[in-house]
Structure formats: C-alpha cells, structure tokens
Amino acid sequence: MIRHLVLFKLNDGVGRDDPQVVAGARAFQELGGKIPELAFWECAWNITDRPNAYDFAINSAVADEESLKRYIEHPAHQEAAGQWRAFATWVIADYPF
After folding, report:
1. CA gap 42, 40 in Å, rounded
2. What tens digit of pLDDT does each residue of 7-31 get?
3. What is the spatial distance between Cα 52 and Cα 65, in angstroms, rounded to a whole number?
4. What are residue 80's phi and psi, to 5 degrees?
C-alpha cells in the first residue's frame, strides 16, 4: 500500500468561505466515491491556527505505484486539483506502508 498525503495552504487573502474554496473542498470530499483506485480516502480542514499550519489535508491510500498513477491521472482528480491551483499551494508525500 502507498499512503498519499497532501497539505494545502490557502493563498494570502483567501478564506475558507470563498466560493472557489468551498467548491474546491467539495470536489475533494466527493473524490472518495469516484475513483476506484482509492482504498482509503479522507480530507478535512485543519482545526489549529498555528502560524506554520496548513489549511486543508488529504490522507489517502492506494494499492501500489500504478494505482497512484491512475489516481493522479483520473479526470475527477485532475478537475478537483485544478480548482485549487487558483487559490492555494500544497506539498505532497507518497510512501509505502
């Protein structure tokens, strides 16, 4: 199994209640049921307000590297991630477990 973690940081001046952000979060929340490669899926807003904290997190798992590749290339994932490019930056970690 491979864990796929993504942490999003909203751009300066962008709030969680911005309509683009609300739509982007909804798009990710709906991915779990749309992509068969996802063996585990959760995402949520961060509840802490520390200065170095990221705002939104995705924690997911896939069977192997080929599944990860198919997930990343899946049109629903590309559409959801594309929305976030307008208002956030992110970091990613993929590792076997």
Report:
1. 7
2. 999 999 999 999 999 999 999 999 9
3. 30
4. -65, -50
DSSP one-letter string for 13-80 = T--TTSHHHHHHHHHHHTGGGT-TT-SEEEEEE-----TT--SEEEEEEESSHHHHHHHHHSHHHHHH
Query: Percentage of the chain surpassing pLDDT 90?
Result: 96
Confidence at residue 33, expressed as pLDDT on a 0 to 100 scale: 86
Tokens encoding 69: 């590749």
Average of per-residue pLDDT across 44-64? 96
- CB neighbourhood size of 35 (10 A): 19
Tokens of 1: 């199994």
The domain limits of the chain are 13-53+75-90
Average pLDDT for residues 39-52, to the nearest whole number?
A: 95
Q: Report the distance separating Cα 11 and Cα 93, nearest Å.
A: 20
Q: Which residue has the tokens 């709906």?
A: 30
